[in-house]
Amino acid sequence: MAKADRDELIEGEIPALRRYAYALTRDHEAADDLVQDCLERALSRWHLHRGADALRPWLFTILRNIFINAYHAGRRRGASVPLEEAPAPAVSPGQEGALDVKDVMAALDRLPEDYRSLILLVGVEEFSYSEAADILAIPSGTVMSRLARARRKLRELLEGEAIPFLRRVK
Q1: Are 58 and 49 in contact (CB under 8 A)?
Q2: For residue 118, is it within any domain?
């Protein structure tokens, strides 16, 4: 594959990578750094790439792995961003729609990272369950059950009937 073709393929994935990175980090600068690290690693390991069809899941997997490694190392922490600083949608909704967008963004912010990632990958980026499972390195059955719980929790948050998460401490 020619370098120009490779660059064109990768450039087409940058907006989706930035959305996913922002969902993980909740910080625009950290998201841009994460995407840059992802692209740098992808280009340096291009020989491991398995073809144009596998490019998107491969890039998302690299991005997620870099995020997890940085998070565990304590170098990069996610931070909440006030909704006023969040980018406006591409199409400006009406006043009622703007409230809906803010409600959804606030509800997504309250979801745990594993639920938020699944909703973004499957619902927004339109990955299949098996592709999301590969990206997140979890079984497909886990994707389906977590996604069902994530959707239920999101619905509860949007309806105002949310029950707080209970976390098991080991």
Answers
A1: yes
A2: yes
Instruction: Quote the number of domains for the chain.
Output: 2
pTM score of the predicted model: 0.59
CA dihedral (31, 45, 120, 77) positive or negative: negative
Q: Give the residue numbers spanning the domain of 131.
A: 94-159
For the chain, the residue count is 170
Give yes or no: residues 100 and 132 share one domain. yes
In whole angstroms, give the CA distance from residue 13 to residue 109: 24
Q: Return the DSSP state at 37.
A: H
Residues 143/133, Cβ–Cβ less than 8 Å: yes
Same domain, 67 and 98: no
C-alpha–C-alpha distance, residues 45 and 23, integer Å: 25
Q: Which residues of 15-31 are buried (b: 16+ CB within 10 A; e: fewer)?
A: ebbbbbbbbbbbbeebb
Query: What CATH number should be reported for the domain holding residue 49?
Result: 1.10.1740
Q: Are 151 and 113 in the same domain? A: yes
Q: Which is more confidently placed, 119 or 165?
A: 119
- Mean pLDDT for the stretch of residues 118-131: 90
Average pLDDT, the chain: 81
